[in-house]
Amino acid sequence: MKHQAATGNSNDGIEVAMNGNHISQVTDSLHEPHQMDKTSLELVSAGKSESRATETSSKKKTSPTDSSHTSDTTSAKIEIRQDQRTVQTSGRVVSGETARGKGEDQNAQVVPPDARVRQLKDQLIRGKVYLSLSATRNNPHFIRELRLRIKEVQRALGEATKDSELPRNAYEKLKAMEQTLAKGKQIQDDCATIVKKLRAMLHSAEEQLRVHKKQTLYLTHLTAKTLPKGLHCLPLRLSTEYFKLNSSQQQFPNQVNLEDPKLYHYALFSDNILAAAVVINSTVSHAKDPSKHVFHIVTDRLNFAAMRMWFLANPPQYATVDIQNVEEFTWLNSSYSPVLKQLASQSMIDYYFRSRADSDPNVKFRNPKYLSIMNHLRFYLPEIFPKLDKVLFLDDDIVVQKDLSGLWSLDLKGKVIGVVETCGESFHRFDRYLNFSNPLISKHFDSRACGWAFGMNIFDLNEWRRQNITEVYHSWQNLNHDRQLWKLGTLPPGLITFWKRTYALDRSWHVLGLGYNPNVSQKDIQRAAVIHYNGNLKPWLEISIPKFRDYWSKFVDYDQVFLRECNINKLAGT
After folding, report:
1. Position 572 confidence tier, pLDDT thresholds 50, 70, 90
2. In what order do the strands lie in the sheet with 417-419?
3. How far is CA 373 from its chain centroid?
């Protein structure tokens, strides 16, 4: 409010709304220390000096013969001093007023672009206060007038955020409202009552904000996990076409490359056809020699035919693609995998489907993806690829921006997994993911150890087998049957399983946050080999961050016949 008052007459009648404004008086008194300007202090100081001089002169002892002369002399001196001080003080006052005048002129030149919008909003608050006070409610004529003025101000204000967006009659409405509020002040001029009401309104607004934030969080998670209509149509349309093909037409070329350890092998576990297509398209388009790149996609039974049809109809240039159905991994069952047994348990089902998600502070842990074995396949890479030495694991919400073949030549120095660490000074460390109040965790791990991210990880499968990593994973999953060591997800067991077995990659290999953080720097994105849309704001959803969409959408051919038939279009803002 303070900066508005300082604008003076430079903005037609802005000072009108400030007179008698209880809101600004209350807030200003709470936040601004009472100060005396320099001129006032000088005047006080001069007055004190004058008083001391007068007292001293009156106390001097004089002889009878000199008393009259002395008195006249003293009076003359005092008058002279007073005149001098008056002149000096006047000079200071004039100088101070001149300086203030210059300052006011400077301030008057800088009027906030939303000054009048703020005044109108303040008037609405004050009007609502008077509507609820008992003294004003007993005056029906005033209440009718005030309600009329509130409606006028609301119409004038509309959705405006700047003064330039206000209608021409906004100032007239502001003045009329101020006159009505002045009447309200005459009826109820008890500042304490108004302050009490304002505090109650503030408390109510804060409570509403808290509820809305909680609802927004839940709805954002719900939206992020809901399949858009077009992406639901796509697998249905593709599956129909796939089953029209004969068996020979359903086969992919270059299948001899699938077990060649000299080639660059990628593991991608996804049920999102369009997302998988972007991963492969972006990787191949930046590869120095696409013919050496082999993509192993594992999907579920519902999307198996559709995923195969997509890549049969849109084969990546020169690269090899293979699609597998997770249901055909007969070795992966509840007797072998503790996590499969847990996912099928009644307690886990109850946790997801019988409790109200909006009553749980950890809404993200109720994500249905945690019930899918697809999310845990990354812990079974040696079993899925028994004849390979190294595999690059990619999430389906990433985009590749550079050639990745250099990762296969890295010496991991006996470590199992290459990762990009994500910790800062005080965040993304182990204590964020694991329960260190449990002695099993606190005894074996360092709470300040640096966290890292899944999404783009190079695995040395020979070291994995030698160190028996799968058994380590199983043992910790058995210990966490009651979810007391960590909640859910794959990163916490990943931190545990690969503890002291990680090789730190340069951060430019993998830049994260495009699915939740609009402040990821452009410089980091441009120099990144892989950008990751981790978070709820996936690039194929309307809730995605607009300025990051194009990095993903440029690898989608929206003219493709299946996309047109399912009305899948480029999102606005990209």
Report:
1. low
2. 320-325, 293-299, 264-269, 390-394, 456-460, 417-419, 502-504
3. 30
